[in-house]
Structures are given as C-alpha cells and as structure tokens.
Amino acid sequence: MLRLNAAALLVLTIPSVLIAAEDTQNKTREVKLSALRLNVPDSWKTAASASSMRLATFQIPSETKEADEAELAIYHFRGGGGGINDNLTRWIGQFDSDGREVRLTRGKARGQDYYVVEVSGTYQEPVGPPVLQQTKPAPGSRMLAMILILEEGVYFLKMTGDDKTVAKQADALRKAFGGSQESEEEYNL
Fold this sequence. Notes:
Layout lengths: L9 E5 L2 E7 L4 E6 L2 E6 L3 E3 L6 E7 L9 E7 L7 H9 L8 E9 L2 E16 L6 E17 L2 E10 H15 L7 E2 L3
Antiparallel strand pairs: 1-2, 2-3, 3-4, 5-6, 6-7, 7-11, 8-9, 8-12, 9-10, 10-11
C-alpha cells in the first residue's frame, strides 16, 4: 500500500483519463480530459466506457437501495458535436413526453459559456450497441446534461440515473467545472 503525505501527489493513468488524487479534505480529485479539467467527488468511480466516443465514464453511487448507480458520460467531438439547441432538444426527447419536466439554463464558468438541461420522468434508457438504437423505459429517472464551450472545443457531460441520485449530485457536477446554479439564467430553445 502506498502512503502519501498531504503535500504529495499521486497520478494514475486510466485509458484517456488523468486522475490526480489530492484534495482529501473535500474528498474530490482532479480529472483532466484533454483540455477539460474537472474536480469530481471521490465517490464518483471511473468506469470502463461503453463507447469509444466517450472521453470518460463515471459511476455514481445510488441514493436508494432500489436503484442502480447513476452514470456520467463525457464526450468531446472534433467537429463540435452539433448545435446547442439540437443537442438540448435531442436530450429532452430521450424522455417520454407524459409526465416529463424540463428546465433549461445557461451560465458562465471560468469565463466560458455553458448550457444545462435537467429532465425528469421516464427515460428511454439505451440498451445494447448505440447503432441498434434500442431503449427500455426507466420511470423515475433524471438527466442532467451540459454543454461546456471552452476555447479548445465543446464538451458534453450527461449524467443519468434515478431521480434522487442525479438531483443530489447536480451541485457537485456544476462545481466540478466551476459552474453554479445560482448564477445561471433561464434559457429558451
């Protein structure tokens, strides 16, 4: 077992993710994904990505015994990945319209723009390879998806899972890149 004092820094390389374990008092760690730097809670465990299109995948412990872990998928596409409104609309459409609740906001973090969609209701959870476009209904779900526009490119963060878990992790996800719900303003498609 490797022991480090408070001034030491341990760096691990995991597929395309650089993780630096350093902030033990606040129980977070810095994750560098290309030009994107996040400060994520230690409880968010790095997982194998289900797609080669992902920069990283995190599993987030569930708030209830009945639900599976939530998932945070992070993407970056060289061509930009489509327009802001197109992506927000697509994410909203991954939930059944009956009982769906949607909140759209935008903000600034570290001088850069970001956009947020928070959707709750019955998520059409993907199953199998993305090319097959198969889904199964997952009632009681929530999605918190963000588009971060950095000078180096556009990043997409999409957290999905049971309603309670994702709602509880909303502030942590925003803080991970320097965002704050209090400073966001309503956004309209």
